[in-house]
Amino acid sequence: MSKPTAGDETRTMVLRILSEIAPEADTASLQPDVSFRDQLDLDSMDFLNFVVALHKEFHLEIPEADYPHYMTLNGCLARLSAARS
Amino acid sequence: MAEFLMPTLGADMTEGTLVQWKKRAGDRITKGDIIAEVDTEKAAIDVEAHATGIIERLISRPGDKVPVGTVMAIIREEGRPTTSIASPQTIATPPAPPPPVPRTEDIPVATTQPGRVRISPAARKLAAERGIDAGQLQGTGPEGAITLEDVERATVTTAEGAKPVSGTDRQARMRQTIAAAMARSKRDIPHYYLSTTIDMGRAISWLTETNEQRPVTERLLYGVLLIKAVALALRRVPELNALWKDGEAGRSERIHIGTAISLRQGGLVAPALHDADRLSLSELMQHFQDLVKRARAGSLRSSELSDPTITVTSLGEQGVETVFGVIYPPQVALVGFGKVVERPWVADGLVVARPVLIASLSADHRVSDGHRGGVFLAEIDRLLQEPQSL
Amino acid sequence: MTKMTYREAVRSGLREALRRDPRVFLMGEDVGRYGGTYACSKGFLDEFGPERIRDTPLSESTFVGAGIGAALGGMRPIVEVMTVNFSLLALDQILNNAATLRHMSGGQFNVPLVVRMATGAGRQVAAQHSHSLEGWYAHIPGITVLTPATVTDARGMLLTAVQEPDPVFIFEHAYLYSMEGEWEDNQPAVDISRAAVRRPGKDVSLITFGGSLWKALAAATDLAQAGIDAEVLDLRVLRPLDIGTILTSVRKTHRAVVIDEAWRTGSFAAEISAQIMEGAFFDLDAPVARVCSEEVPIPYPKHLEDAALPQPDKIVKAVHRLLK
Predict the structure, then answer these.
(1) Potential cystine with B134: which of B127, B197, B226, C221 (Cβ 3.0-4.6 Å)?
(2) CB-CB neighbors (< 8 A) of C276 in chain B
(3) A83 Cβ under 8 Å from any chain B Cβ
């Protein structure tokens, strides 16, 4: 078993936020490159709440123009790790 | 003395189950305080007091199934303020019984005899209240008439099928109650439909600029612009902001926009954004966010479900371009918005690509006609061309 | 608790009224020397004297008119009309004078008159003595119309009636005079404004008054054996009608059968049926049914008379039809 990395923690946190927004969704089987909207039936309000939660959790400014980058799991993780470094 | 009654939390509600009292006998309460939690077919609702005073007596007990309009508690009012029970007619009156149910709709043409269902007045009333299609019942009364007992039996059968309120059962019951309300709407309300395509270019660029200057927690969704535009347009065409009661439309002074919110497990609710015409876009956004959150968490307040004076439904996110909605009785109009799409658009003699959206109106022909409906949609269009003044 | 007949109850009420108030006097055909056609005033002539127990000529119009005059003059007359059939001769006095004078004098004159008469069939006295016309009187504003069906009401309604400032008409069903009932001493004053539930029930309301009350109660007993729980309402007062009690009952049971010994067409039962329709239509689970007399002059032969009148078995059948 490998030691949890910073990337794993970020992933866990993103999935937790998603499961709060879509409690019935099985986030474990999320496809990382398909948009949340398509997989989890998120609407614009859900997505906004998701972005707000990321902002609060990771202390990150997310301009509206950047929203498209946050629409998949891999997109999110890439942005978040970029912001961290 | 004020009576605290089981409120009607929507046209489709006939009874609710008291989950728990949030106050005790002897407690002092103020109008608007949450006094009880009530479980309906749709959700658990926090019910607000409509009077200020001291709770004299709690009558219903947790677990009781209480028909709409039944006294649940007695409130001793202090000094009897002028509006002792705020408009009891809106909270206490069970839905008016709809006219007779024609049998012909539901039965294959070949076996249908033209004519009415033979059903007693009391049974007809009860069937309508419970959303039971009397045409499907077997009458056991005089000359084969459907009696109260027949309707009761049908209700028990239905209720037994959905007894423990698990998620799927609640969903099935919600489906039933939506069906009853919509069937009643389609049966009673002569709908007419209008639509118009609105250039959203200005609204969207204004929104983008505005959101650029706002932190993520204060950003607006374009849906809020649509709601505000509808609210302001209603001031110009107030006959659409009305409730149908006792054979006539009563205009509402205040504008409470019922906002259709789909629930994640299926089904929908349309709670009110109170006084939407008087709120700033930021306030409206906050209220909207809060409303969606609570709708999905199942903690709406009774006034939010009983108050809407018109409904707005927006299905654009599902990718559809046009919505022709079914009016939610006793309201007399419903506004639908589709998806914002880029389309060729002629502006100043040139064909340009513009984001456009189709706005539609379903309205009750007993109350308004196409001309006024058209004025209303045009007003929404005009307002959306000046987003900064919304 | 003592037992007494309806006749004794009326007699006791009359005597009490005469004793209490010197303005009260009794007037009518054969009330004095003969002691009353139904013996309700037997011995009164000796007890109260000819000033207060007055035999009259056979002229209803005259002595009812005299009663109205006496009432206007400050007396409290009780006028006995032998039967409702003969009261038609006095109808002009009743309708055009007794019922109207307070109204037409702008409240200056009132007519504190009590008129008693026998009504109803069932004693083989044939078509000219067997009418039930109290429903006709209930049509007239300005008078009160009472139909006592129990010994308590037979005595107590009379005592309350003589204290009324306006005309009161009391219809005593002739068949009831020899009926025995229980009587409680020291009865409180009897009200003359409300209907009474004589038997509570939940499945159907049997609405009736006067002589038919006992038939309705008999029917309710039969129905109970079939598992049908009938509520029996005694209207007691036909005008002003206590519609509230009727509607309360119908809203509970959702079915109503009105029993009225008058002919069905244009009957008081029709009025009740109409008011139920007006006030409780959406609570009805079946049409309102009526059990009335057959539309014939009441026959003389017993088997035909019985067949012409409402009877418990007809009421039971009507209820079964409503419940199918």
Answers:
(1) B127
(2) none
(3) no
